[in-house]
Specification:
This protein is α+β, with helices and mostly antiparallel strands. Helices cover 60% and strands 13% of the residues. It contains 7 helices and 4 strands; from the N terminus they run αααααββααββ. A two-stranded antiparallel sheet has the order 1-2. Strands 3-4 form a two-stranded antiparallel ribbon. Helix 2 packs across helix 6. The protein is globular and about 55 Å long.
Length: 169
């Protein structure tokens, strides 16, 4: 409930703080995307295609860190809206590549601008230098966790324990 105090013990957990801030940021971004008839997942696909070029569903799933089975419906929606197309993969005709269309690129340019505006209120309490520092630190944490995930563990651990607890190096 807004205005209610948060438990201090939770506020001492960085993951709790990050999740709560992310919740606010996601709300702002989702509201912006909904005005354009899209969801967060649609925006992520369009952005990945713009950043990396045509991609298979497997590649998109890797870029977005999601299960590829979650992509089909989203890509269907984008294709029906004329924002992407599926084309045969020239390397393997059994596969298709998802390609960002011109309408998708034009919409994405508008979405990027709108997304930046939607995020401003979230970071208003920070100076420009603090925003840059926050972004740098968040990227470092994300990169470390991405790397650890690829290696099968978590930062500071040698491997995940079977009981869900971490083993220290």
């Amino acid at each position: 409930m807004p205005g209610s105090p948060r438990p201090p013990s939770l506020l001492a957990l960085h993951s709790y703080l990050a999740s709560q801030v992310a919740k606010y940021g996601t709300r702002h971004l989702e509201a912006t995307l909904e005005r354009h008839g899209l969801l967060l997942g649609h925006h992520a696909i369009l952005t990945a295609l713009d950043d990396f070029g045509p991609a298979s569903q497997r590649e998109l799933a890797g870029y977005l860190r999601i299960d590829k089975s979650h992509l089909s419906v989203r890509i269907d929606h984008l294709e029906a809206a004329g924002l992407v197309t599926r084309t045969p993969d020239p390397q393997d005709r059994r596969r298709h590549r998802v390609v960002l269309g011109e309408a998708g690129r034009v919409l994405l340019d508008r979405l990027h601008a709108a997304a930046r505006v939607s995020q401003r209120p979230l970071l208003d309490p920070l100076t420009d230098a603090e925003r840059l520092t926050l972004e740098t630190l968040l990227r470092r944490v994300l990169d470390a966790n991405d790397q650890a995930g690829e290696e099968g563990g978590a930062p500071g651990t040698s491997a995940p324990a079977s009981d869900g607890k971490e083993r220290q190096k």
